[in-house]
Amino acid sequence: MNAKEISLEEGKVKPVVDHLNDLLANYHIYYQKVRGCHWNIKGQNFFTLHLKFEELYTAALTTIDELAERILTLGKPPYSTFKDYIETSQIKEIQTIGLKDTKMVKAIIDDLAILIAKEREILDITAAAGDDGSNDMVNAFMQFNEKNTWMLRSFVNED
């Protein structure tokens, strides 16, 4: 399959796919970080953050699948190795064992800022390519991340 089969120009789709693969790599590292926070949270905020982290990693897992399937829909292969994810991702791994709850939240806030910036950039690229399908999908991811940034910033009193 290629982009022509869904009425998109192949040349305009390449930058879309490149950026979607970049976002996919970042989401994989983010997913694992949130998962580590979920597993390793301790203290008085355990019940609140354990549930919130589960909500975030579950959403990230769905996002990862949607990104990979969109890349395939555009006729290209999605990144699928941890080597690709680690080399490509701007989001970096951290050790979550023993990390204080507020430091976990702040790390997730920082990652969400990276994801949102990448998503905003992709919105411009997909608009230029006439790729409304990718644009709508990424816009929904961004809105979810914006809302959760507000919630997490409020949790650590950084609003």
Automatic annotation (TrEMBL):
Short name of one Pfam family: Ferritin
Boundaries of every Ferritin/DPS domain copy: 18-157
GO MF assignments: DNA binding
Family: Belongs to the Dps family.
Superkingdom field: Bacteria
Gene3D superfamilies referenced in this protein's UniProt entry, alphabetically: 1.20.1260.10
Organism for this UniProt entry: Mucilaginibacter pocheonensis
UniProt name for this protein: Starvation-inducible DNA-binding protein
Keywords assigned: DNA-binding
Record has ATP-binding as a keyword: no
Database matches in PROSITE patterns: DPS_1 (PS00818), DPS_2 (PS00819)
